[in-house]
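Bug #77: duplicate submission created two jobs. Keeping one. Sequence:
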Amino acid sequence: MGSKSGLIPAFSIFRLFLDRLLRGSANVAVFQRGFAWALNDMPLRALLYRRPTEPKTIQVVFERSIYLVRLRRHRQARRYTLRIHAASREVVLTMPPRGSLKEAKEFAQKHGGWIAARLHRLPVAAPFTHGTVLPLRGVDHRIVHRSGARGTVWTETNGNGQRLLCVAGDAPHMDRRVSDFLRREAHKDLEAASRRAAEKLGVKFKRISIRDQSSRWGSCSTSGVLSYSWRLILAPAYVLDYLAIHEVAHLIEMNHSPRFWRLVLKLCPQASRAKTWLDVHGTDLHRYGLPARPKRSP
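Kept job's structure:
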């Protein structure tokens, strides 16, 4: 098959180049010119911005406390910027391509007060440890460590009517056991809610996936996979049901058109109430399971 526009295929050029190189030392200049051409063809930014390995994080000291700041270079950044991810409580400093580590440290330190104020404004982290109170399906449960008991995690009510989330085993494994339990419960409830919605709408989904998204509560792929945040198991049941109906409705309408919302409201009259609950309490759900961050003095 002939090449378009009379161009010689790249592979033929490469073979011609090797043949000439192997004919004798007189053709070393050909190799040198070819090597120079290869360098010239490299992206300019790859030549300009290559630098020694730099640290992934830096420390900012403010009022005898130390805050870790993750560094992130972005080729489109024009200045230094700071951002705090509410879900993970991570402080991120974005740097321009030609920014220096020295300037980044000075910028972060200059805004140490802003970092401290924003972090302190976030809801207090609630690790999965003995004594922590967390909402399960919208109802508060206090985590109780039962070291001598058999089993893994279960719920019960004590003599005072208080709901308990009991965890067996060694203390170092409490976080993992509670996390696994909540994910299993989320998968069970969300799969059931998704199936109910799918049956009413006359559609089928491929499977559901339980994740820990920080920017969205759920999503629907074109292949029929529904993804949900496990943290929905912490919300009241009507909120979880609304999210399931919302994502299943995307199997019919992959948009947020008026037709889409009519489908949602038809199956979920409490959609507005659920959306309001997430707007008010959604950020708070991300604090559960986060490790406590003790202050460290320099």
